[in-house]
Amino acid sequence: MPKLVSFTRLCQWLCLILLMLLKTKCSDDVEMTFIRSAITKGAVCLDGSPPAYQFDKGFGEGVDKWLIHIQGGGWCESTKSCLVWVNKTNGVGSSTLMQKFNFTGVFSSKQEFNPGFYNWNRVIMRYCDGASFTGDVEKVDPATNLHYRGARIFNAILDELLVKGLNKASSALLTGCSSGGLAAILYCDKFRAKLPAISRVKCVPDAGYFVHVKDISGKYHFEKFFTKIVKLHNSEINLPSSCTSKMKPGLCFYPQFILPNIKTPVFIINSAYDSYQVQNILAPEKADSHDSWSACKLNISNCSPPQLKILQDFRSDFIKTLRSGMGRSIRNSASRGMFINSCYSHCQTGNQINWLGDAASKLDNKAIAEVVSDWFYERNTSQLIDRQHVLPQQC
Ligand SMILES: *[C@@H]1O[C@H](CO)[C@@H](O)[C@H](O)[C@H]1NC(C)=O
Ligand SMILES: *[C@@H]1O[C@H](CO)[C@@H](O)[C@H](O)[C@H]1NC(C)=O
Ligand SMILES: *[C@@H]1O[C@H](CO)[C@@H](O)[C@H](O)[C@H]1NC(C)=O
Ligand SMILES: *[C@@H]1O[C@H](CO)[C@@H](O)[C@H](O)[C@H]1NC(C)=O
């Protein structure tokens, strides 16, 4: 008889574990939604395919709270490079090639993995325009069939979400990673304006704070790249006029020149040693004629002492730029927050380990997840910069 009981017990345990495994698998898995009706409005990906997003419905106290994330993936700045984008297997130029993202980190629906936002409505706007959702060119060259219509995509997805309940949001967060993080800054005030005045609305760009600094050759190669993107996609009309009225449109792709005029609260998550920025802004191939940086860029443990010195100067410049970009509101942490660690990485919110776990990505022993939600609800001041690790860290 005792044997039978323990056998039943074992079955119960096995069933429970099986259920948990199934649930774990299912809750990360969120279907794609394609907005086919957007095609008639000309709101389409580079190749003319419909825009798409992934949406996991909120529950419990989160039903009227919304986290909208803009996916990143870089930019295409010429017809030639955009034609390559269209075929990229990760779908950044065409929704026909998109694969579903797993909802982990800031997207997770599990409280233990995402304590601040697990029960919110969580959306990933899928990126497929090559220009941080800023483009709007009516003409389509029949020879290439390339569509530069990112701004229309952003509006089409947002309009659909507004109908699905975003228009009644009590709280909303616009986030994004990399080129999507930049979009979250560029669109912050416009997003705010679409929501009820009484709702709490804030923006959290992740790895989107691209800095305008000299590269290792003493030039600004990356500025040329930004300028080409803005020109090709006719982005100027969708960049904040507070910037374009004063500066060349290519410069208005740099957060440091836009942020001082953004009225909505913004929290910047970035590494001072952002790997994309080190590889493309500080030491791009064009600035490295002797190819002396490849090994160091690939793995920071290969960097020579002089290279580490240059990296440290980059970090100082990054932090300086951050201060000027914050403008006078620097001390008002309700309006401007930041979490600047020293990880040699790029984008940290969608990655479960960086978002909540890894000690190396924490500051003041606090995970990004905790600092961001404390800031969102104005529970604590949140302008954290890693001053302990002045060298790039592996995390
Ligand atoms: C992209 O794929 C299409 C269809 O397979 C092909 O015709 C085209 O040449 C490819 N373009 C580039 C730039 O590789
Ligand atoms: C999503 O999760 C599944 C199952 O754990 C895994 O096989 C797949 O590679 C993941 N996809 C991505 C894009 O990370
Ligand atoms: C970088 O190199 C070190 C030392 O060789 C190694 O331990 C580490 O795993 C490497 N890191 C990456 C990201 O490849
Ligand atoms: C606010 O953050 C600081 C620094 O991380 C911490 O020492 C303090 O306990 C926090 N206060 C509250 C109310 O959480």
UniProtKB/TrEMBL annotation:
Record localization: Secreted, Cell wall
Leader sequence residues: 1-26
Main location: secreted
Enzyme class: hydrolase
InterPro entries noted in UniProt: PAE/NOTUM
PANTHER family registered for this protein in UniProt: NOTUM-RELATED (PTHR21562), PECTIN ACETYLESTERASE (PTHR21562:SF92)
Protein name per its UniProtKB record: Pectin acetylesterase
